[in-house]
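A.,

Following up on our hallway conversation. Structure tokens first:
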């Protein structure tokens, strides 16, 4: 190669160097911008995750939730039961909501499925309903709301709510029936376990079947009348067998009956619906 040719090639290489350097600088800036955007996206995602976990005290899916609905607190209060049951549930990782009797209204029952509870303890009075003195074949769950002719008029007319009383001559409250569970309750129970701690709650299957059709997985209740003391003791044993021992609902009911036996005054026993635990 002649000296002239080498000189021309050197000038071309020198002239192309700024272009290559400019392209390299531009590529470097693009990489920096891309890396910066990626870092922002990661930081934003991390912030959302921390808000959902640390900021709310929950995982994104949330902890299990339980409710103790204590309508019996109006007539047969037992604060020790509420404390013990809450402790068992909290030890098993549940967030627990407690509702005293004065909060257990018709509207409370109406919205009960919307809260997303996994386990419901209904410590409420209940009994076989009658129509003009004749048994209806279904169980009414008591509210704590005093009966009034001017409240829930349409639901009274439709036979979804009615009068309920603890004994002849006692103050009357509103009671809800299986048709209310199916047609007036909002939302669904989405696989919840429902424990009915009142009298006759599974003397027939009608009320339990209404809860199942509303989305509950299993319903536990009594075959007949039961004292408050006996049902409270049974509930504590049932919770321990379900949550601490990890038994199935069917096995937990059987173990509870082996522990405490039938009600000593009324000979009623805990039952499960469906019988195989769903």
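Then the amino acids I'd put at each of the 278 positions:
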């Amino acid at each position: 190669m002649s000296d002239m040719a080498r000189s021309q090639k050197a000038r071309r290489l020198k002239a192309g160097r700024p272009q290559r350097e400019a392209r390299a600088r531009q590529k470097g800036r693009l990489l920096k911008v891309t890396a910066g955007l990626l870092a922002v996206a990661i930081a934003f995602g991390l912030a959302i995750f921390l808000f959902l976990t640390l900021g709310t005290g929950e995982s994104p899916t949330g902890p299990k939730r339980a409710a103790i609905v204590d309508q019996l607190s109006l007539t047969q209060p037992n604060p020790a039961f509420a404390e013990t049951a809450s402790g068992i549930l909290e030890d098993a990782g549940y967030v627990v909501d407690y509702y005293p009797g004065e909060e257990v209204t018709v509207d409370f029952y109406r919205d009960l499925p919307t809260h997303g509870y996994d386990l419901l303890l209904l410590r409420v009075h209940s009994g076989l309903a009658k129509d003009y003195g004749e048994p209806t074949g279904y169980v009414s769950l008591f509210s704590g709301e005093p009966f009034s002719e001017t409240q829930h008029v349409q639901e009274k007319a439709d036979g979804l709510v009615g009068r309920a009383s603890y004994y002849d001559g006692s103050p009357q409250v509103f009671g809800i029936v299986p048709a209310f569970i199916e047609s007036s309750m909002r939302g669904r129970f989405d696989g919840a376990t429902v424990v009915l701690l009142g009298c006759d709650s599974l003397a027939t299957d009608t009320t339990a079947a209404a809860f199942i059709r509303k989305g509950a997985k299993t319903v536990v209740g009594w075959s007949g009348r039961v004292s408050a003391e006996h049902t409270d003791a049974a509930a504590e044993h049932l919770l321990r067998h379900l949550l601490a021992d990890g038994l199935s609902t069917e096995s937990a009911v059987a173990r509870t009956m082996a522990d405490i036996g039938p009600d000593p005054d009324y000979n009623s026993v805990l039952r499960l619906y469906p019988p195989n635990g769903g």
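Residues 3-55 form the longest helix (53 residues). Curious whether your intuition agrees with the design.

B.
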